[in-house]
Write a structure and sequence with these properties.
Layout (H helix, E strand, L loop, with lengths): L2 E14 L2 E14 L3 E5 L6 H8 L8 E10 L2 E2 L5 H8 L4 E4 L3 H4 L6 H11 L5 H14 L5 H4 L9 H13 L5 E5 L7 H18 L2 E6 L2 H7 L2 E6 L2 E7 H6 L4 H8 L39 H5 L5 E2 L5 E2 L7
Parallel strand pairs: 3-8, 3-9, 6-7, 7-8
Antiparallel strand pairs: 1-2, 1-4, 4-5, 9-10, 10-12, 11-12
The structure holds adenosine-5'-triphosphate, iron/sulfur cluster and magnesium ion.
C-alpha cells in the first residue's frame, strides 16, 4: 500500500507555566491508501494530540508543533499556514469524527444545513445541490428518512444518530483521510457495535484511510489492519493487528492484552497494569515505562530504548528485544 500519510518524528509540546508537556514526542508512522491504523494507549498517552497535530490544531495558545514532518500525499502540512489548512486540508482532505457529537454540532441549525456547510465552504456544491448532497451523505450513514430528518435539529436525534450525522459531515467532502477519536465511547454497547460496522462500510465505500484512536485494544484489533501503541507521547510498538495480538513484543502491549476481558476467563479477576501513567511534567528516566514494568533493569532506568525493527513491519522499543 502506498503511504497516503507519512508522519516522521512529530513533536507537539504544550507550554504551561508549570513546565513543558511533551504530549507527542518523536512519533513516526505511515498510513497507506484505504488502510486502517489503530492508535491505542491509556489516557494521556498523546493519541488525541497526535490527531489534532495532523489536523494542524494543537490546543492554542499553549500547544505547538515543535518538530517533525506530516506529509499527506507528499504535501508537507507543517509548512502550510492556518488559512491554507482551513481552506484546502481540514474538512476537505482530512476530517475528524470526535468523541462527543454535540461539540461538532450547532444546536440552532438544522442537520441538513450543517452537513451541507462543509460542502458549500469547500465549493463542492451550492444552494439546493449542496443540500441534496448532504442528504445523500445522511443516507450513506443510514439515517432513516434522511430527506425529512434533514430539517430536524440536533436535539431531536438520539446519541447514536447524532454520531452518524457527525460521520456524514466528516465524509461530506470525500476526504482521503478520516481520523476517528474514540468515536463510540459516549454510546452504549449495542449502538457502539452498529457504529463500528458503519465506519467499516463507510471506509469500504469511500476508500478513505482511517486513523482510529481508541484506548481499547480489542476494538482496534477487530477493526484495524495495523496498530500503533502509544505510551507517554511515544509509539512503543507497531505491528499488524494479528501479530500484535498474538505476539506482542513490548511489556506495555502485553499488559494491555492481559487486561482484555476474555470469554474463557470470565469469572477470574481481570489483570490490570500496575501503577499509573507517568506525570507528563516529570517523565521517568530511561524507558518511561520502567516504574511499571515487571522486567525493568538498571539499563532500562538509565537509557531510553530505541525502536527496533523485528521484521515484517513489527517494531518495538524495549531492551528485551536486543539480541
Ligand atoms: N489543552 C491542554 N493543556 C495542557 N495539557 C494538555 C492539553 N491537552 C492535552 N494535554 C496533555 O497532553 C498529554 C496528551 O494528551 P492527549 O489528550 O493527547 O491524550 P489521549 O491519549 O488522547 O488521552 P485520552 O485517552 O484521555 O483521550 C496529556 O499529558 C495531557 O494532559
Ligand atoms: S525497556 Fe525495560 S522497562 Fe522498558 S519496557 Fe522494556 S524491559 Fe520494560
Ligand atoms: Mg484523547
Amino acid at each position: 500500500m502506498a503511504a497516503l500519510l507519512d508522519v516522521q518524528d512529530l513533536r507537539t509540546h504544550i507550554f504551561l507555566k508549570r513546565g513543558v508537556v511533551k504530549a507527542v514526542d518523536g512519533v513516526s508512522f505511515t498510513l497507506g491508501e484505504a488502510e486502517t491504523l489503530g492508535l491505542i494507549g491509556e489516557s494521556g498517552s498523546g493519541k488525541t494530540m497526535t490527531g489534532l497535530s495532523i489536523l494542524g490544531m494543537p490546543p492554542r495558545p499553549a500547544g505547538r508543533i515543535v518538530g517533525g514532518s506530516i506529509r499527506l500525499d507528499g504535501e508537507e502540512l507543517t509548512e502550510l499556514d492556518e488559512r491554507a489548512m482551513a481552506e484546502n486540508v481540514r474538512g476537505r482532505k482530512i476530517a475528524m469524527i470526535s468523541q462527543d457529537p454535540m461539540t461538532s454540532l450547532n444546536p440552532v441549525f438544522s442537520i441538513g444545513s450543517q452537513v451541507a456547510a462543509p460542502i458549500r465552504a469547500h465549493g463542492l456544491g451550492t444552494g439546493r445541490d449542496a443540500l441534496d448532497m448532504a442528504i445523500t451523505e445522511l443516507e450513506r450513514v443510514r439515517v432513516p428518512s434522511a430527506r425529512d430528518r434533514a430539517r430536524d435539529f440536533p436535539h431531536q436525534f438520539s446519541g447514536g444518530m447524532r454520531q452518524r450525522v457527525v460521520a456524514a459531515m466528516a465524509i461530506a467532502c470525500k476526504p482521503r483521510l478520516l481520523i476517528a477519536d474514540e468515536p463510540t465511547s459516549a454510546l452504549d454497547v449495542t449502538i457502539q457495535v452498529q457504529f463500528m460496522d458503519l465506519i467499516e462500510s463507510i471506509q469500504e465505500e469511500t476508500g478513505a484511510s482511517l486513523l482510529f484512536i481508541t484506548h481499547d485494544l480489542g476494538v482496534a484489533a477487530s477493526l484495524c489492519h495495523r496498530i500503533a501503541v502509544m505510551y507517554a507521547g511515544r509509539i512503543v510498538e507497531t505491528a499488524d493487528s494479528a501479530t500484535l495480538y498474538s505476539n506482542p513484543a513490548h511489556p506495555y502491549t502485553q499488559g494491555l492484552l492481559e487486561s482484555l476481558p476474555r470469554l474463557e476467563s470470565r469469572r477470574k479477576r481481570l489483570f490490570s497494569i500496575g501503577g499509573a501513567p507517568p506525570n507528563p511534567l516529570e517523565l521517568p528516566s530511561g524507558c518511561s515505562f520502567h516504574p511499571r514494568c515487571p522486567h525493568a533493569t538498571d539499563r532500562c532506568r538509565a537509557e531510553e530504548p530505541p525502536l527496533k525493527d523485528l521484521g515484517g513491519g513489527h517494531i518495538a522499543a524495549c531492551w528485551l528485544n536486543e539480541d
